[in-house]
Design brief:
This protein is α/β, with parallel strands linked by helices. It is 38% helix and 22% strand. It is built from 15 helices and 19 strands. The longest helix is centred in the middle third of the chain and has 21 residues.
Length: 496
């Protein structure tokens, strides 16, 4: 799990020299109190760092320049305590390279009816100071998030925490590396895409590495390390009897451990944050990585099956956003439907690679034939996912732009056993209903691979899309196909 406390957002307050030293002293004092309150709140996952009030174009430009260069600074929270003429902000905002949150608040919650005077009014001018600031950002067509309310209110803390998590994911993707072991699954369209455009848009690079290079690392793994990992498997999971030491398939468990350790070493040595593989390219490997990919996802790596680098990047992004929150995030695929008119459901799964962070209860560690890939039987974790609200997220290359597609779902407890389906799985009911959700997904060009998230909401993905300036389509309880098709047409016209 990534420690988000290594990151910081800078709290920058705007004013001007017009008000005099006493007023500016109070502005500085109030700003420090607010930023400290945020920094000490258990809800805020990153550090919030106070910066002295800026009062001139030069001060604004200099602080933004420093924020751009600061390695651990992932964004700026800006607030206008007084009136800060926004032409002062133009040069600074022109060079801003970090996400920006505009906090529209004021130091006092209530109007002091009996005591309010012009001194108070001169000091507390956020109501129109922030509007001046908002205008220049709109005039400059800058993407930013605006949150409104008193700084001590829960919804402000929640919105700030959400934005910080998304900013951390953006920071993490920028310069991130994704390794592809083998290429895209042959003849598949939606999992392919423009990797150059992706790096220009999101900041991560995607490059292919020969499976033979990975196999070389896998083969170098020591028996001592394999012994330790197989012992960990036995203690962490319900280990199938045939996989235990001295039993028929124990060698397969050791092969799976060797593969996990080899992939992990390759990723660590290359400083990769995510990877893909495909069952069509396993040259030199004994089995398709099953438990390896599951456990590496649980450790925070992004993963995409069949060469799906876009989903791999999004798994990593959602892992970062959800770091420290209850629940998990996983690579996922819509596998099959339950068209019972009284209980429409989707069964989500994959051949092997579902992250145990979404499991309900202790997973079983099992081995079964796969029937695809032409290799030995792979070891995998088998479990049902926990019930509750969730989202499915897909990143799609539309040719002239990227589209993020979200479907809000409700996972349900699996009441029926699946004795002949030894894979990890989740059952969900999509909003607004199965027929509408599936039709909307198909109209929007959604992929069959997604990221399934238990601990994030559509709001996170909306903030993410706005931060990167990409299109967002949400399928939720209010979705109507006629309206959605119109929105898709409007987006097509907008992006042309």
């Amino acid at each position: 799990m990534l420690d988000l406390k290594q990151f910081e957002v800078w709290f920058i307050t705007g004013s001007q020299h017009l008000y005099g030293e006493e007023t500016l002293r109070l502005v500085d004092e109030h700003s420090q109190i607010i930023s400290t309150y945020f920094d000490q709140s258990p809800k805020i996952p990153v550090r919030v760092v106070f910066k002295p009030v800026v009062k001139s174009p030069e001060e604004i430009y200099n602080i933004i320049q420093k924020a751009n260069a600061a390695k651990n600074c992932i964004g700026i929270v800006a607030w206008m305590h007084t009136f800060s003429p926004s032409k002062m902000w133009i040069r600074g905002l022109q060079i801003l390279q970090k996400p920006l949150l505009h906090l529209h608040t004021q130091y006092n919650r209530d109007i002091p009816w009996a005591d309010i005077d012009m001194d108070f009014m001169n000091l507390n001018q956020s109501a129109h100071g922030d509007r001046e600031f908002g205008f220049i950002m709109t005039r400059m067509r800058l993407n930013r998030k605006v949150i409104v309310g008193h700084w001590q209110q829960d919804h402000i803390l929640n919105s700030l925490a959400e934005w910080c998590r998304v900013a951390a994911a953006k920071h993490d993707l920028n310069g991130g590396k994704i390794a592809r072991f083998g290429d895209n699954m042959r003849q598949v369209a939606v999992t392919d895409g423009d990797k150059v455009a992706a790096e220009m848009t999101f900041g991560f690079s995607v490059n292919t590495h020969p499976v033979g290079d990975l196999v070389g690392v896998i083969n170098s793994v020591s028996d001592a390390d394999i012994n330790l990992l197989t012992e960990e498997y036995e203690s962490a999971y319900k280990l199938a009897e045939v996989l235990r030491k001295g039993k028929d398939k124990h060698a397969s468990l050791r092969d799976a451990a060797r593969i996990e350790l080899g992939i992990k070493q390759f990723l660590q040595e290359g400083n990769f944050k995510a990877y893909t593989n495909t069952f069509e390219d396993l040259h030199g490997m004994k089995q398709l990585p099953g438990i390896a990919s599951q456990r590496l996802m649980a450790a925070g790596y992004g993963y995409g099956g069949e060469g799906d680098w876009k989903t791999s990047a999004m798994v990593r992004a959602l892992k970062v956003m959800g770091s420290g929150l209850p629940g998990g995030n996983s690579f996922m695929e819509d596998y099959t439907y339950h068209f019972n008119p009284d209980n429409n459901l989707v069964l989500g799964s994959h051949m092997l690679e579902i992250c145990p962070s979404i499991a309900s209860g202790q997973p079983s560690c099992e081995i079964h034939p796969l029937g695809i890939g032409g290799k030995e039987d792979p070891v995998r974790l088998v479990f049902n996912a926990a019930a509750g609200p969730a989202i499915n997220v897909s990143l799609i290359d539309m040719g002239n732009r990227f589209r993020l597609l979200v479907n809000e779902v409700e996972a349900v407890e699996a009441k029926d056993e699946l004795p002949k389906l030894p894979v990890a799985r989740v059952l969900w009911r999509p909003a607004p209903d199965l027929q509408t959700a599936c039709a909307a997904w198909i109209y929007a060009g959604g992929a069959h691979h997604t990221v399934y998230s238990q601990n994030l909401t559509s709001d996170y993905i909306e903030t993410f899309a706005e931060m990167f300036g990409v299109e967002l389509v949400v399928i939720d309880k209010n979705t109507q196909l006629r309206q959605l098709k119109n929105e898709l047409r409007w987006s097509e016209a907008y992006y042309k």
